[in-house]
Amino acid sequence: MTNVKGYHDMRHQSAANLNQWLMFGRLSAMASMAAGLLLSAAPAHAVSFSQQTIDAHGPPRAWGKGVGDLNGDGSADVVIGSYDGGLYWYQNPGWAKRTINGTYRIEEDLEVVDLTRDGRKDVVAITTAGVVLFENGGSGWTARRLVSGPNLHDIEVADVDRNGTLDIIGRPQGGAGNTIYIWRQTNLASWQGSKIMLPTGGEGLEVVDLDRDGRQDIVVGRYWLKNNGATGAAPSFARYTYSTAAPTNAYIAVADVNKDGRQDIVASPAWPEGGRANLSVENQFSILVPRDA
Cα–Cα distances in Å, from 136 out to 13, 117, 121, 199? Predict the structure, then answer.
């Protein structure tokens, strides 16, 4: 399927397609799931939402999207990256549009995270030139390419080797999605690369401490990879299947859905099986804000 950006485009599918969410809960101590539950889109009675338009004429082909407090005022700002070129942030409140970089072409995923550990949120984005850090200097932004090579579709930033620096975890799309790439940071100029092979390709990626042992694990469609640990060195990962019913092309989220103190996995198909996703071709950006109960 050409130019299907599943990691983000599931958010542009019709309401009927959003019924296809799968939740896999209650991770056991043996780290293997027995079955999944199909969630229906039952109407929410406790919370309702209103739509607010941020930019009615925003950047075209806005494939990169993120949220984070970029100016340290305690409010979450919105970050938008265009495949045609340009990375922007919208300041909350008021949604004033500000330019981070006007030239880099932003691909499907980005993270808002303090990579430099200076107290300010930076942006780490997949671009056509590789993974690029857009460093937040407070009064301006500096672009620095960190790693390049594979054509990534998904990216996460986390300290997988527990050496106190944040690492980059990436995954391509389609058949190439059978490989997960890890770049461990020594410093911003030095990254040590390694790979994890999966039985199948696909897309979708989440990095989280799934089994609550203090180490960052990796979750994709059908599988989770337990981080067996190695401080300052490449950790080893053991693969477990949480459900064979989970889609391999998926948007992945992890949270304690049922409030039992254990992490649950939510996997949504990136597009309808055997069909096509309804992609957004407009350049209007909105947010949904909860109404007061």
Answer: 33, 11, 6, 39
Residue 99 has, within 13 A of its CA and on its CB side, a CA count of 7
3-state helix, strand, coil in the chain (%, to 5): 5, 45, 50
65 CB-near residues (< 8 Å, 6+ apart): 8, 78, 79, 80, 81, 110
The model's pLDDT over 143-167, given as tens digits with 9 standing for 90+, comes to 999 999 999 999 999 999 999 999 9
pTM over 0.85: no
3-state secondary structure of 202: coil
At residue 42's C-alpha, the angle toward residues 40 and 46, to 5°, is 140
CB 218 within 8 A of CB 199: no
Tokens 């053991």 correspond to what residue?
Answer: 238
Contact 235, 196 (CB under 8 A): no
Cα 133 to Cα 88: distance, rounded to the nearest angstrom: 14
Give phi and psi for 197, each to the nearest 5: -95, 140
Closest by CA to 71, choosing from 136, 157, 166, is 136
Residue with tokens 């390049």, as numbered in its chain: 148
Dihedrals phi, psi of 177, to nearest 5 degrees: -75, 5
Q: What is the pLDDT of residues 233-292, one digit of tens each?
A: 788 999 999 999 999 999 999 999 999 999 999 998 987 666 655 444 456 667 667 766
For residue 22, what are the contacts with CB-CB under 8 A and spacing of at least 6? 36, 37, 38, 39, 243, 245, 246, 247, 266, 267, 268
Provide the token pair at 180.
């997960």
